UniProtKB/TrEMBL annotation:
Signal peptide: 1-18
Name of the protein in its database record: Dienelactone hydrolase
The entry's keywords: Hydrolase, Signal
Species per Swiss-Prot/TrEMBL record: Nocardia goodfellowii
An MF annotation (GO) of this entry: hydrolase activity
Superkingdom in the source lineage: Bacteria
PET hydrolase/cutinase-like domain boundaries: 39-238
Pfam families for the chain: PETase
SUPFAM superfamilies linked: alpha/beta-Hydrolases (SSF53474)
Amino acid sequence: MRALVLAAACLLSLIAVPDPPAEGRERVRSAEIGIEGDAATVWYPAGSERRLPVALLLPGANVRKQYYAGFAAALADYGFVVLVPEHYPLPFIGYAVPSEHLLNRAVAWARVAAADPSSAIGAVLDPGTLVVAGHSYGAAAALYAAADRCQPPFCFGLTYRRPPELRAIVGHGANTTVGASVDEVAVRNIPVMFVNGSNDGVSELAEAHASFMRLSGSPSSAFVNLLGANHFCLTDENNPPGAAPDPRVPTTTWGASIATTARWTAMWFLAQLGDRAARDYVYRIGPQQDSAVTVELR
């Protein structure tokens, strides 16, 4: 774990990017909690002097939460309380996918934690600000939630309403293709960033980019092509047990890919929350200076 954080620090020193807040460094902690019966891990910078946004990470299908530990810790180091739930297998489907309702449950949990004077996590989180990072199926669930669409298998019922606390989304390995067509998703005024590996053999680059181009309703959107990475660029190992494997081999190291994905995810979130340095990085410095990616802005 520490090796991943150090790798991120080394890569950050090569380009002009806002550093993680000083109070978070070397003090990111984790805790096991429950959210309406589901297990979850929370990563947070202990002792923060300000309240931090809640960053919900929706895992990919059949990917256990522990395989996101490196990414979650790196993201928390930028000043977020990162919540990673353990999704449960759906009846009759045979695999586990995240639910759109996890956004609402995350906000409800944050409110309770913030109101608990004995909670170390509640003391540093802002229950009024939610950002969401999704991986693969988790990214699709986040997009449909932002569109207020109850979309099976991520939601079952007639309607769904996202929490008003939602501020921004980053989809990793995301697409909304159905066969040869693209399901056009109309998010409701939510900034969205796609991050896709150039070697992704599960969410292929053409599929992801087509989904990005057909996305509507976002006041700002970006497509980040992570060079050399495959579908599991933000997990602690390639092809985690239980997940549909990516047949393509990444040409970037795991430490470097996690550092890059965490950096762009954090910068996007912070930029949409009003951080000037992060906004300058996303819209000017990063696309020009970060040789690990290519960036398309809309």
